[in-house]
């Protein structure tokens, strides 16, 4: 799809260029470039790997780039790598890296606060939740309320929220009078629920219909 869009955009650049062969990934902060290469070499021939570091401290930001020789290899890496890497095609180098890093964490409404960095997967190395002072102060829980002006289909909504690891259940309800959709989502951890809220609040599903996602009190200690 990305390759087709590139061809249809009126651009004259070669399909094999960097825009279609370089991917952007979220990684544990202890990863070295060699670790990154080792994790992604199974998907194709890697031209180079790089890790984004804090310019002042030199510490990894937990983000990196992997460039393949072919777009098909980059596409395979995005499709098949562990969800915890949150792999996407990287923006061209002419776009500032800070802007791209910010967009990477933004949801469809572009309202996600900077600095709310979460990474997940089935491996323990991804089970981290970085906190900082810019985090919105609100009562959080492991349970979410999802509201829509259109009714939900149980299987589809479950599949959408299951993109964030730790989904325990998805209970879809329907108002017979308004035909609007309502669902209760619960995750195994508050971190998963926070990530799901920031990524899916305002998300259009189906296209043109924005979801409203808020926390539901579940009786747990929110300080956790």
From TrEMBL:
The keyword Nuclease does not apply. InterPro entries: Nucleotide-bd_a/b_plait_sf, RBD_domain_sf, RBM45_RRM2, RBM45_RRM3, RRM_dom, SLIRP/GR-RBP-like. SMART domains: RRM. SUPFAM superfamilies: RNA-binding domain, RBD. Gene3D superfamilies: 3.30.70.330. Coiled coil: none annotated. CDD domains: RRM2_RBM45, RRM3_RBM45. PROSITE patterns: RRM. GO terms for molecular function: RNA binding. Pfam families: RRM_1. Keywords: RNA-binding. The keyword Hydrolase does not apply. It comes from the Eukaryota. Residues 21-95 form the RRM domain. This is RBM45 protein. It comes from Burhinus bistriatus. The gene is Rbm45.
